[in-house]
Amino acid sequence: MSFKNYPMVSRVIFGRGSFNQLSDVLQPKRLNTKAPFVYFVDDVFKGNAWLTSRIPLSYDDEICYISADEEPKTSQVDELVEQIILKYKEKPSGIIGIGGGTILDLAKAVSIMLTNPGEAKDYQGWDLVVNPAIYHVGIPTISGTGAEVSRTTVLTGPDKKLGINSDHTPFDQVILDPELTKDVPKAQWFFTGMDCYIHCVESLTGTYLNAFSQSYGEKAFELCKEIFLEDGLSENDSQDKLMMASWHGGMSIAYSQVGVAHAMSYGLSYLLGTKHGIGNCIVFNQLEEFYPDGVALFKTMMKKHDIQLPQGICKDLTDTELNIMIDVSIGLEPLWENALGKNWKKTITRQKLYNLYKKM
Ligand code: NAD
Ligand code: ZN
């Protein structure tokens, strides 16, 4: 098929306090009393009764607290799948991810790997998943990545950082309750929010742009400008709007691609474990050449919110290490092609990436 037949999240609830409805949403989806709902919850919420007391638990349902200190790995997905298989006689009724991009991606990946043979690393790529996933629900607690809406779950494997992109990846149900984001620390709010902003810039300036992507990207871009540059938005409005910006930013790249910042930030993440939001910011800060207007506005936003980026994270790396990052980055061909067109190899050389990384 030459046109992508794109699956979307089939059900979504939006609204402050909508998290209270989780029990009503899940009840009809319980397969039987031996098939539990397994909740993956960011461990930042451990002991947080405001959130956890509203997670409905019956029969063998279970909450697994998971740290988001490191981004998801294929080996971690395999371990979680094994634990679930060993523990329960039946496959779960559903996997529910409650957290940021890290936890949402783990929930997606585990729900896929519970019904597909082999290891998670075998499915990194495009359309390799054969069997439909277990019913899975995404409940974001921080806004920006678009992981709640996307067709991918980004995983670091033994030899690459690459998503499981498939028709079975998107959530069956998403609950967008902006109130859940109220305690996100300011710097993290900015970094993950900038992931959304950068999705928009990369999509809107890319060669893959089309009216579908543009319509979502422009809306998300407008919302980001309002949230990060204007004064006078109430906290509630700001949380509501950033949650929708994330959604639209994710939709915008569904039918297009990200670009240079993502390609280079994947390199940082692979070698140094730099997290996605901050990694994108570190890279984007050096990309005036590719995105002059987008970077200028980004710098204004950083200044307004008094955000400091780490400096010199690559300056002491060896050439071997830099080459690993360059390999990861340059291998993401669709991202470069979206950013610079079919002849991107004429502008993007290893030396060019080397020089850029050295500045970060
Ligand atoms: P994250 O999930 O790692 O969360 C960032 C930090 O915020 C963590 O320390 C977490 O504990 C904390 N946090 C989350 N919610 C909180 C809350 N309500 N209160 C207090 N603290 C809270 O970061 P992220 O930026 O949301 O996600 C990054 C991940 O998303 C990366 O692994 C990246 O690869 C992935 N990603 C996926 C997609 C996709 O389409 N699947 C797109 C972009 C990024
Ligand atoms: Zn991103």
TrEMBL record:
<dbReference type="Pfam" id="PF00465">
    <property type="entry name" value="Fe-ADH"/>
</dbReference>
<dbReference type="Pfam" id="PF25137">
    <property type="entry name" value="ADH_Fe_C"/>
</dbReference>
<feature type="domain" description="Alcohol dehydrogenase iron-type/glycerol dehydrogenase GldA">
    <location>
        <begin position="10"/>
        <end position="178"/>
    </location>
</feature>
<dbReference type="InterPro" id="IPR001670">
    <property type="entry name" value="ADH_Fe/GldA"/>
</dbReference>
<dbReference type="GO" id="GO:0046872">
    <property type="term" value="F:metal ion binding"/>
</dbReference>
<dbReference type="GO" id="GO:0004022">
    <property type="term" value="F:alcohol dehydrogenase (NAD+) activity"/>
</dbReference>
<feature type="domain" description="Fe-containing alcohol dehydrogenase-like C-terminal">
    <location>
        <begin position="192"/>
        <end position="291"/>
    </location>
</feature>
<dbReference type="InterPro" id="IPR056798">
    <property type="entry name" value="ADH_Fe_C"/>
</dbReference>
<dbReference type="InterPro" id="IPR039697">
    <property type="entry name" value="Alcohol_dehydrogenase_Fe"/>
</dbReference>
<protein>
    <submittedName>
        <fullName>Alcohol dehydrogenase</fullName>
    </submittedName>
</protein>
<keyword id="KW-0560">Oxidoreductase</keyword>
